[in-house]
Prior knowledge:
single chain; three-stranded antiparallel β-sheet; 42% strand
Amino acid sequence: MAEYMASGLRLGWLFNPQDQHVDIYRLGQAVEVVSMPTMLSGKDVLPGFQLQV
């Protein structure tokens, strides 16, 4: 994910089905870890986009 962020990625979701969580990467912010199931939002990168996990 570090390579994607270095190339300008503004929002990334890394799903870990074994441990039942999602790592949320946002440009310039610390990684946020949320437990599944959850609703993921595109926030300002993908306005109005939501993904039910």
